Every structure is written in structure tokens, then in C-alpha cells.
């Protein structure tokens, strides 16, 4: 996203063009005279060359790596292929009793943007879901775009109709009233539905096996009284309840936060609307057995930028961050906002209550972790974006306390996309997982009890977010596997699905699926045991 | 397929393993101890390790490049991914009035073979069809395996059930009675059906838009009185008739040849059964306005080899080749077999009648062109496999003549997979096309009238078979485009769909579709104008 993005990604402009990544240069070099021929043909086809004003424009992503979808598929910026690959090639031995689905989702630009929105961010790409169905050591792969309202309108028009990230003022008039949601961030299986999330919109419901989109605007039977829904709902393992929230719940720059829970059948059994100190990003949250813990990052919704046709957010280092704590099942009037150090926290590792004491662990940096959003007061500082495990505690017993405490755990380990054994949502937990990129990195396994860290390293691979898979349904916490995608840097980004045994991390991957290509990109993933999936339960 | 195949394909064993193509070596290098871990796990999972006798074996193609599917997807030996890619990335300007579909098919091993059949040939891979739907400069890509009887049985079993190429004695007992056809060679649109061919079996009918398999054993309403059907039927452009044949029509080593035609609606309006001098390969044939021209290559059906569990054919340089000529619409009793030089001809460029004089042009070599089939009397000779344009003529006016004449045209041009403007099947023709691989090669355009050759070269690309596309429905012969797939050797085989304007060959490609990956392999392709395709005609 930076001017020197190609360089920082380890691909120099020289090597990029040598490997054919610069498409214009490549075309010119490959066939003498082709460039001229192309130019001539374009000139004689003014309808095609002029673009949106007449015929649909041709699908040609911009060359600039700084642009939305820039580099196209050749640059790895888009994938776009919807795929069924039955019985993937497997190496090693997939555990015979592993029976479930590993789901993933990420942004995958459906169309190049109108050039005036070419500076839009990668996270505005349309959601593309992939799944690995694993049983008896056989693995089937399937991907589908989420057919939400946005995708369908653009598919029909064969071009981009939505402008900048979370800025409806930049949309084509033809899509007024349609949901802008991309459904590109996380997915979750609950009450038999595969729900796919983008935090600016309600979930989309997909069939967990076919990936057919079933509801392009899922509102829990009309009970989701919010225009938004987090990408990170939680499940209470004791009750099976689903707990979610939406910020900017009632429109652009709204301070309303809708918080709710639904029972194991998806019936909303509690909801309330509370107010944030200001409208800003609240990407993840924590739920304990008794409380909801919100976090307001100082990534502020920026009215001026939106009016000017820019992205939704600006990083404001001078705005305070807040931890918000409220009782589950209450009317929300007990919500209290606590101040602490301004840490840019994105993902919760785990959290629990011990009487009046609330503890939540996040990965977080001292400064902006999202350089693609503009910074109001200072340039982006990579050093300050470094994510460490931040433990926030707050004591609710004092009625006058307005501060939370922050402690950095395992300062030797940095990373992002923290996770846990999802069966320990809301509960005290022992094991956390962190994606630690870079040399010597890998998937870090944090043991809070023994205060140790193990790193599952896969040399020459770039690893996506890991997800924990229990060895058996009733396995002890952390006993099982880490599953996730690795991209082979020596093979042009070709992907493996990798399985690490948490009881023998040093052994490296115990099994792999060798994909023939780089798989579609991922923000987050989710493991669903076969018993959770309708249609598989009786198979 | 030879022991030194990797070397002859330009990939040395050293470079193969350096680029990660040797999967075992790669795994070992990537993660210290991984190999041992994998071995250990396999040992503790004897059910998985033992394979077919208990649980379904894991899908892991052999490493050896000489083996069927050897190297797997990493080695480019299989693809297996069924894909929808809507609105592909386009460069250049696709002609705005080009409206139709470019279809392709090739073998794509569905499963690794039982190790005792690992020496099977690549052409025993299951047929995988791909299509590029082109309209208004937008291009949609779709691929599907042909769901024929063989595919369905193996899909269900999750393993290979069919043994060696055209040898039913090597099959799993569970598939007795099922068609062995792979439908992997050519496809053809006629009477609204997409028919997909393998010369050992009847066609499979697919929906031309969805690629759904509609009939896994298509017999023209029961009128195809043959167990086989050529991959190269012809269309009579004056009547719209479809002319086809099947050799070894009545079982293994049968000398029967079933010849037939169907009207433009697919109603069989003529058929007869004739006899070949011996059972051998008859890959292509020619049809003129008055005659059927068969060709029997000295690739003999080999009873001993079949009994021993080998492939169907052996190359027998001592067996004569025959040109067989018979009237269209007759009872077949007029069939005469003519001898000439023993040329190994595979594909017809064009053919016509002028009274009693029949002319047919083929590409052909002096010796075996299919090194993957064993040779009975001498080792494979690459020099003799070189394909040149062979013009065969025969004069039917003499009742005693038993020879045809052979002449080599354009000896400076070698190649394979010869084609013509399909609108000139059965008629005198001016333009032929030849795929001429190697340095300085490309798609060769033969002008028989001016006696010139132009080569459409795309440097650093390996080109698949080209197909001619008329510029407009009533364009003059040869006025239009050559369309086909090129694989970028500098980008790991990533594919482009390439369009060459036959009126400006020197300009190189006028337009391309840049695919994100190597597309599924191809033997042959077929262009269908939108007006031929049900569901598109009224769009």
C-alpha cells in the first residue's frame, strides 16, 4: 500500500519485471510490435477504450501495486477463480479421525475500481470463501465468492459499482440502497449456518457444504437491530450461545453499539444498544461468563475524509482508546468505559472474569497497525505497529475507577491474528496462538500456565492465520492441531494446507495438502467439526 | 514417458529439484525432521499406508515423471481443479463482435493409478473440459471434468479403478460393464449438444453452457451401432451433416469399422459397417463431398500385450498403412484399401474430391509419432517422428489401382495437430494450420494457393493446438483469428488465451486473456459461434 510496497514485500521492481510480473513490460518484451498493435486496436475501438460511459469496460487491473487490485492475478493481488478440487493431493498422514471443515475467507477484488477510487484499500475486496473438507485422510477443496448484494450487482454489470472503503458517497447511483457489505473478514458456523462477516454490515448466510449463498443480509430473523455486525462473534461453550455486536450500528458515524446474544438455535435471546465515546473502530471484543468487553481503538470514523470521497477511517494518535465493560444480559446501563495506554489492539486471544476482575488478552501495537488508513498526526511507524500480547485487567469493584491496567506478556514474541482454542471462549484459558511472521517466525503457541512459547516454523513459507483443531471432541485444551495455509515462497506462492501437531511442534508439519496453485487469500479461518454441520451429521 | 523424458522436456533432474518439483526432496529440505515425522506417522497408521485393501488410499501421485500423473500438480502432470472464473483479466482489445465459445479438452488424471499400472500413458487421463465464453470483449472461463461412467465410479470410490490404456483386463472387478471411455481428446458442437470424444467409446454429451454431463454414453438415440467413435467427426458445411466413424467397433481387436452420418438435427441418416485390413489405430479421417477416406496407421492393436496387462497398441513398422476410400451414403461394399508409403499420419488438415480424384492432406512422420506406445522392431526415432504435411491422392477411376500417391508439401514446415477453417471440411480449401513447436516455431498458417507459410510466433510461450475462428459468420476462408492457449515458460507455465489476427500475423497477439494459473491441459479445441449454442441464440 506504500509507495515502496513492492520493495517491502521482497520483490524488487527489477525482479518483478524479469519474472513477468509487470504485465505491460512483459507484453512489450514478448512480442515485438505487440504494444503498438494493442494501442492501435484500442484506438480503433473507442467504445472499449473509454470504459464505463458506454460498453462495460474490459477487466484489466491497474499495474501499480499501490492501486486496488494492482498487479491483478499476476501480482497475486486477486484470485477470482471459484474452484472445486475433489480429493486434493495429500502428503504425510492426515489423522484418520479428523472429520470436519476448515473454512477461510478473505478479500478478493471482483473488479478493478473506477480509476478515481484506485487508491482504495485491499480490505475493500469482495469476500471469497474457501473450505477444506477433511475426512478419512481425504481432503476436498471448494471456493465461492459470497453472493451478497454488492457482488450480485457488480456481477450483473460486469464492473465495479462501489467506491471507497465504507464510504457510500462514492458509489454508483445504481446501487443506492443495496448493502455495501463485502463479507470478507471472518466466518463462523452456528445454528447450522455458515455466517460470513464484514464489520460494516450484517452477516451473509451460506450453505456450509455447497457454499451457496442462502441469505445475502442475515438478521437473525429480523432481530439484528443494527446495520452492522462484528467479524468476531464469540460462542459460550457452556450454553452454546452466540454473542455478537455491531458498532456504528445506526448509520455512518453513529456512536450506537448493538450488543446481543442468540441461543444455540439462533434465536436472539438478549440485545441492547449502548453508546461509544466516539465513532471509531471496534474490530474485536471479548466475552466472559458474566461480561461483555468492548474496545474502542483510536482509528476514528472521519466525517471530513468520507465527505471528500476517501476511506472511512483515520488514525488519530491523540484520541484516547477505551475499554468498555458491561454485564451480559443486562440493559446496558451498567456499561463503563475505562482508559489505559493507547494501544492499537485488533484481536482477542482470550478473556475471562474472576468475580469483579476482568482479564482480556489481545495482540496490540503502540501505534497504528493499519498503514493503509491515513494517519492524522504522524507518519506510519513500523516499529510502533509491532504487535505484542497485551493483557488488560480491570477491577469493577471500585465504582470510581476509570482506568484499566495493561501488561505486556511474552515480550519476546510479536505477532498478529491471535487466537485460542475456541472451546475456551469466555473462560480462563491456558493456550493462545499468534501468527508471528518474519525470519524465525511461524505459528507461536503460548502456554500461559508454563509461561513458555513454542514456534511452529515452516521455513520458506509465508503463513496465514492458524486455527486450532481439537484432537478429539473432548480433548484437553490445546491438545490437537494448528491448521492453516502456508505459501511457498520458492514456488511462486503456491499453497499448502499445513497441519501441525500441538504435542510435537518440533516435528514440523505432520501432513500437508499440496495445492496446485496459490489459494485465495485469507484474513481469518474457522474450524467446524463434522457434528456441527447439517448434512454431515448423519453421513 | 521414456526413462529420459524429464531431460528431453528441457527439465533436468537438478533444475527440477531446485525448483521444488521433486516433492519428497522438497519436503525434506523445507523442514528438518519432517520426513521422519511423516514416515513415523505413516507407520502408526497402517490402514492408510496399506491402501486399497482397507480404507481408500491417500491421493498422492508418484514422484517419477515416467509414471502416470507423475509429479502431480507440482510437476504439471495433473490439474484436477474445476473452475469458474467470471470476467477474466483481458489485455489488448478482444474484437467487439466476436461472440462464441472456445472449447478445449484434455486428459487430467483423476486419481493415481494402482502402482502396478503406474506405467500407463498420459492419454489415459480422464477428460477435463474447459471453455472460454467470449462476448463484447468479456471472457468467462469454466472447466468441468466429464462425468462419464468411469469418472463417476472413481469419484465415488475416491481412487483409480481402471487399469491400462484401452485394456479392460486390467480393471478393478467393481467396474465390469462400465464404459472405459475417458472423453479426453476432442469435443464438437452439433445439434445443440457438446459432444466429447475418446476414440475407444461413444461420445459423452454435455450442456454447452454449464458443462453439466447430460448423457454419459451418447448413441444418437441408439443408432450408433458401435462400441467406439472417433474423436474427429466432420461437418459437411453444405448440409450441416455430421459424419463420424468408430474403429474396433465391435469389441477388442475387432476389424469392424462403423461409419455413419447424422443430419443437422442429430438424426442418423446413414450408416454402414466395413472391415479394416487389421485392427490398428485410425485416429482421424477425411470426408469429401462424395467420399469417406479412412487411414489405418501401423499402430497395431496387440493381443499379446493386452493379455499381458499392457497398453492396447504396439508400433509395428513392418505392418503396412492403408488409405481406405468409400462412397458416402453407400452400403460400404465399394470400400477399397490403397497402399502407399508407411507414414504415421494422425490429423487431417483438409480433403476434397474432384470427380474420381481424392485428395487428403495430413501431418505425418516417417515413423512412430507416439513414443509412449512400445515399438516392436526398433527404438523410437525422434527424427522419424517429425511431422510434415503429406498430401495423399488417389484416383478411383482405375479399378485395378491399389496404390495412393504421397507428396510432401512445404517441407520447411514441421508440426502436428493440423487444422483448417472448419467451414471447409469436405471442400477444396486454401488455408491450413499447423502447430509447429520448438525454436522459431509457433502457429503456422499454410496458404496452399500462394504456396506461402506464415508463422505466428509468441516467444517464450509453449503453444497448444490453435483453432480457427471466422472474423464474421460469412467471412472468406481464413479471414479471422487463430485462438489457443500459450503457456508462459518464464512464469511457471501460467497460461494466456491468445488471439492472432490472420490478416496481421506479424503483429503478434492482438488480445490475450491472462489466466492466473496454468489452465487444464488440452489435446484439441473447438470454436462454436454463439448462434450454434442453445440458450445463447436468444440472449
Automatic annotation (TrEMBL), chains A, B:
<dbReference type="Pfam" id="PF03055">
    <property type="entry name" value="RPE65"/>
</dbReference>
<keyword id="KW-0479">Metal-binding</keyword>
<keyword id="KW-0408">Iron</keyword>
<comment type="similarity">
    <text>Belongs to the carotenoid oxygenase family.</text>
</comment>
<dbReference type="InterPro" id="IPR006311">
    <property type="entry name" value="TAT_signal"/>
</dbReference>
<dbReference type="InterPro" id="IPR004294">
    <property type="entry name" value="Carotenoid_Oase"/>
</dbReference>
<dbReference type="InterPro" id="IPR019546">
    <property type="entry name" value="TAT_signal_bac_arc"/>
</dbReference>
<protein>
    <recommendedName>
        <fullName>Dioxygenase</fullName>
        <ecNumber>1.13.11.-</ecNumber>
    </recommendedName>
</protein>
<keyword id="KW-0223">Dioxygenase</keyword>
<keyword id="KW-0560">Oxidoreductase</keyword>
Amino acid at each position: 500500500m506504500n509507495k515502496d510496497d513492492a520493495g517491502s514485500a521482497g520483490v524488487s521492481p527489477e525482479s518483478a519485471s524479469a519474472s513477468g510480473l509487470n504485465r505491460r513490460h512483459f507484453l512489450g518484451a514478448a512480442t515485438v510490435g505487440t504494444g503498438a498493435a494493442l494501442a492501435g486496436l484500442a484506438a480503433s475501438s473507442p467504445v472499449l477504450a473509454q470504459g464505463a460511459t458506454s460498453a462495460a469496460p474490459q477487466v484489466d487491473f491497474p499495474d501499480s501495486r499501490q492501486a486496488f487490485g494492482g498487479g491483478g492475478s499476476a501480482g497475486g493481488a486477486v484470485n477470482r477463480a471459484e474452484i472445486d478440487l475433489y480429493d486434493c493431493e495429500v502428503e504425510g498422514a492426515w489423522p484418520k479421525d479428523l472429520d470436519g471443515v476448515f473454512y477461510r475467507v478473505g478479500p478478493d477484488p471482483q473488479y478493478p475500481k473506477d480509476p478515481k477510487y484506485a487508491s482504495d484499500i485491499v480490505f475493500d475486496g469482495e469476500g471469497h470463501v474457501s473450505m477444506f473438507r477433511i475426512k478419512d485422510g481425504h481432503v476436498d477443496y471448494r471456493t465461492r465468492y459470497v453472493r451478497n448484494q454488492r457482488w450480485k450487482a457488480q456481477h450483473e454489470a460486469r464492473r465495479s459499482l462501489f467506491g471507497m472503503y465504507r464510504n457510500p458517497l462514492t458509489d454508483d447511483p445504481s446501487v443506492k440502497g443495496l448493502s455495501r457489505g463485502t463479507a470478507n473478514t471472518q466466518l463462523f458456523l452456528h445454528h447450522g449456518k455458515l455466517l460470513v462477516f464484514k464489520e460494516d454490515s450484517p452477516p451473509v448466510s451460506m450453505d456450509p457444504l455447497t457454499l451457496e449463498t442462502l441469505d445475502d443480509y442475515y438478521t437473525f430473523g429480523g432481530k439484528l437491530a443494527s446495520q452492522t455486525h462484528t467479524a468476531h462473534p464469540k460462542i459460550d461453550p457452556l450454553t452454546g450461545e452466540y454473542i455478537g455486536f455491531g458498532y456504528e450500528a445506526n448509520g455512518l458515524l453513529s456512536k450506537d453499539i448493538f450488543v446481543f446474544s442468540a441461543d444455540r438455535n439462533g434465536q436472539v435471546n438478549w440485545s441492547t444498544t449502548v453508546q461509544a465515546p466516539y465513532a471509531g473502530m471496534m474490530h474485536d471484543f471479548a466475552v466472559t461468563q458474566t461480561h461483555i468487553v468492548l474496545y474502542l481503538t483510536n482509528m476514528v470514523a472521519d466525517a471530513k475524509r468520507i465527505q471528500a470521497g476517501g476511506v472511512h477511517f483515520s488514525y488519530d494518535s491523540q484520541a484516547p482508546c477505551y475499554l468498555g465493560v458491561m454485564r451480559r444480559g443486562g440493559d446496558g446501563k451498567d456499561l463503563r468505559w475505562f482508559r489505559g495506554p493507547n494501544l492499537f489492539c485488533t484481536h482477542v486471544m482470550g478473556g475471562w472474569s474472576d468475580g469483579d476482575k476482568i482479564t482480556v488478552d489481545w495482540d496490540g501495537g503502540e501505534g497504528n497497525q493499519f498503514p493503509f488508513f491515513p494517519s492524522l498526526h504522524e507518519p506510519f511507524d513500523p516499529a510502533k505497529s509491532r504487535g505484542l500480547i497485551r493483557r488488560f485487567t480491570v477491577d469493577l469493584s471500585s465504582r470510581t475507577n476509570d482506568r484499566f491496567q495493561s501488561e505486556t506478556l511474552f515480550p519476546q514474541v510479536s505477532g498478529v491474528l491471535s487466537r485460542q482454542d475456541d472451546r475456551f471462549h469466555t473462560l480462563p484459558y491456558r493456550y493462545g496462538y499468534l501468527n508471528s511472521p518474519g525470519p524465525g517466525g511461524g505459528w507461536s503457541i503460548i502456554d500461559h500456565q508454563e509461561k513458555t512459547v513454542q514456534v511452529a516454523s515452516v521455513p520458506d513459507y509465508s503463513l496465514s492465520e492458524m486455527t486450532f483443531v481439537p484432537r478429539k471432541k473432548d480433548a484437553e485444551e490445546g491438545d490437537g492441531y494448528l491448521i492453516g495455509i502456508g505459501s511457498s515462497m520458492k514456488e511462486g506462492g503456491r499453497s499448502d494446507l499445513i497441519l501441525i501437531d500441538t504435542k510435537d511442534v518440533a516435528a514440523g508439519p505432520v501432513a500437508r495438502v499440496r495445492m496446485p496453485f496459490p489459494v485465495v487469500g485469507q484474513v481469518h479461518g474457522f474450524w467446524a467439526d463434522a457434528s456441527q454441520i447439517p448434512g454431515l451429521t448423519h453421513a
